[in-house]
Amino acid sequence: MSLSLLILRPLDGALQTERRAKDLGLATVVDPLFVVESMQWSGPEATDFDALLLTSANAVKYGGTQLAAYRYLPVLAVGEKTAEAAKKAGFHVEITGQSDVEHLLDQLADSSYRNIIWLAGEQHMEVSAKDRKIYIAPVYRARAMALGERAKACLANESVILLHSARAASQLAEELSRLQLPKDRHHVVAFSAKVAEAVGQGWKSVQTADHPDDEALLSLASALCR
Questions:
Q1: Where do runs of H (alpha helix) occur along 94-189?
Q2: Can you tell me the mean pLDDT for 178-197?
Q3: Average pLDDT, the chain
Q4: Does residue 171 or residue 105 have the better pLDDT?
Q5: Alpha carbons 78 and 48: distance in angstroms, whole number
Q6: Which candidate, 11, 111, 112, 10, places its Cα nearest to that of 53?
Q7: Contacts for 177-182: CB closer than 8 Å, 24+ residues apart
Q8: Mean pLDDT across the stretch 127-133?
Q9: CB 89 within 8 A of CB 109
Q10: H-assigned helices in the chain
């Protein structure tokens, strides 16, 4: 018996993941735990900075007209999808990282990009910038929601759950506890070790992708679903 694949990330990303999963012949259930929204924001003068840090395509999609003021700054993008979104919006991507923010910053020469503005989500990780100055401007938020009816129906049977963020992992664990739904019949496929740690114990299995992208995540999920 094949298992359903539960995708809980915000809708735009969830639909992209679903398309890839369906190409692999997997049965999917999409029911986001978060909705992404724009925020009112204003940032310092672009001339105060020598680079723009982007860690999510959501910053470009939901940043609004204020983004235009920073368009001439070279972009440091975390991930190919973020870089692609930045290029489509008219930004020049100077460096594309393949892991997380700190790994990207470690790639930079000591003398380059000393003052960086980061257009971030309202919930963002702490970053060790060493001797660089990073100004954080939250431009969007991912608002958490209760576990939806489609997700609850999926979780009535053994399933495979994709988790793309530590916040989603924590939210799912809290929702299952609130609803008194068991964990031990389900498999978790986590985007990273931090995500696997955040989801906690008690699952039938927890596996971590060997590379932080959908291809690696779905490769693990495909084996479990079948």
A1: 101-107, 149-154, 166-179
A2: 93
A3: 91
A4: 171
A5: 22
A6: 112
A7: 179/147, 179/152, 181/152, 181/155
A8: 78
A9: no
A10: 11-23, 57-62, 80-88, 101-107, 149-154, 166-179, 193-199, 214-225
Helix (H, G, I), strand (E, B) or coil at 139: strand
Contact at 8 Å (CB) between 95 and 107?
yes
Beta bridge partners of 190: 163, 208
| Token pair for 2 | 């094949």
Contact 165, 136 (CB under 8 A): no
Burial status of residue 111 (CB atoms within 10 A of its CB: 0-12, 13-18, 19 or more): exposed
Q: Which tens digits make up the pLDDT trace of 74-123? A: 999 988 889 999 999 999 999 888 767 777 887 777 778 889 999 999 98
Which residue is listed with tokens 């999963």? 21
∠ CA(195), CA(191), CA(225), 5° rounding? 115
Extract the tokens encoding 39.
Answer: 């925020």
- What is the C-alpha to C-alpha distance for residues 55 and 48, in angstroms, rounded to an integer? 20
The torsion angles phi and psi of 224, rounded to 5 degrees, stand at: -70, -40
